[in-house]
Predict the 3D structure of the following.
Amino acid sequence: MATESKNPGGAAKTPKQLAAEARAASEAAERRRERLIRIVGGLVVLAVVAGVIAIGFFAGQSDSDGASPTAPTPDAAAPSPTGVTSDTYGVQYGTGWTSADAAKLPTLEIWEDFQCPACAQVEAVSGDGLKALADEGLVKLMFRPAIFLDNGLAADNTANGNPNSSARATSAWGCAVDAGRTGEYHSAVFANQPAEEGSGFSDQLLIDLGSQVGISGDALATFTTCVQEGRYLGWAANSNQKFYDAGVGGTPTGYLNGVELNSSQLADVEGMKKLIADATAQ
């Protein structure tokens, strides 16, 4: 026979109390699950880093002509796209940043890597919706690029003729930011993410996407030169260093006024709208 749940005074607990306890237990289990995911993710990151260190060591000891092209490194003197500042190296999107109520609006930061399949899925499901919230001035949206997947995909990307694909895609996006096509190009890169990881982005694809999102005339010529020169590779590396320094566990990861959000939350536009409204009311 099942034991009836009771309060400390001996009275049977109400259905509302039982539901609250069940909800608390479920939330506790979810927190334990997320902690486990972070631990496992951290171990994976450590393994990747260890592999990269080993690759770098052996490459340094070899005279082989097959070494991968050098990846960009952080450079405080490197140029950044229009509107990007060195405190975050993030790309601001939406009207909220310049509205009269800017100080009252919550900030939604999204860390992402253009080669990250989960990032592409979130963009496909909720990208337009999140940008719409920013366009309406309900939230200050900031995209924060990471390029850490270039490490794990270095061999495959290089073999396919597209080394440092995350860095080059991010640099090209910076060129599109200069051309006033921030949101459009951001969406286009994810929509054209290679179906097979390690295939990478070609420079030609990154250039073609410029005209596809409406960059034309002299602006397209400037954009093309910017992509070909890799003008913002240093910025991509600088932003990635911020990613490491912040201890972000992976992508996509969001922060609403500093409170971490998982990919499921980012993919739920209606849920995000409520979270943003609650944060605004605080």
